[in-house]
Amino acid sequence: MSAGAKRTVDVLLSALRAGRLHHAVMLYGADLGELEETAKTVSREILASENLPHNPDFFELRPEGKARNIRIGSDSDRVGGEWPPNSMRWLLHVLRESAHGTRGKVALIYEADRMNVPTANAFLKTLEEPPRDTFMFLLTQRPNDLLDTIKSRCVQMRVDCPPRPLEDEEWAQWLESYAAWIKYLSEGAQRGRVAEAFMRGYALVNSFNLILSRLSDAQSDIAEDKFDEMDEELVEAALAGERRSLRKRMLMQIEDITVSAALENYPSVSASRRLSRAVAELEKCASFMELNMADAAAFEYFMLSSIKIWSAKI
What we know:
314 residues; single chain; elongated; Rossmann fold
């Protein structure tokens, strides 16, 4: 756990022990894993339980499906009168039931920004009139995407947890090759070497996707024990969230290398102009990925845009 996450935990535990912990806390920051550990550390204290997955008063809600949305839960999906698990209506129903223990109930909502409007509106009613002794933690890396009406009813806490650098040799080599590619464009833009620039760019696109897939698979293997209490659909939803967080860390490192390469290879005025355009295209690439465009297609868009940016006369 990072130092920033520990500070947040200390504040929340202090409020809990003083009987002043708000029923809804929105934790936001760059690293979803740190947000999760922060919320779970406090949850263990609330429920006096070290084994949260087996605690009947602990609940988790995650986005799922191709759209990566937190679903509301429809009447057609009900079985025996029960709302479908991992849906907002299921969560709101179980939170209103009596707690099994004496410590109340806790709910974690992962990637809370993935609520659509119907889901958010259903959740809003519970925020306005929360069940007694119930605590809800909303975790998000994109706080601005949540409805203002939801944010205004939560205590908002930024967890100062910059994404952890990926310690992977192949990824480190990729970043070096990417920096060298920008340098190549800066030197070769006037020499008619555009074809080679495209070939090297497509090689970087291909290797980026291979590395992302390999690291995602490795992460899935590590997470098997972590998710062994979930059914197949929830495991798939959890792993999709892990991949999303991993991808975000990779893109942030690419941004850092882009800044360094621009300042190293271009005059200050030119570097500033090119850099602002490159970062905007990288953010657009990230948005495409969030909207479920294939990672390969979104990253190819960024690299093609980069060729124009770094080789143009400015």
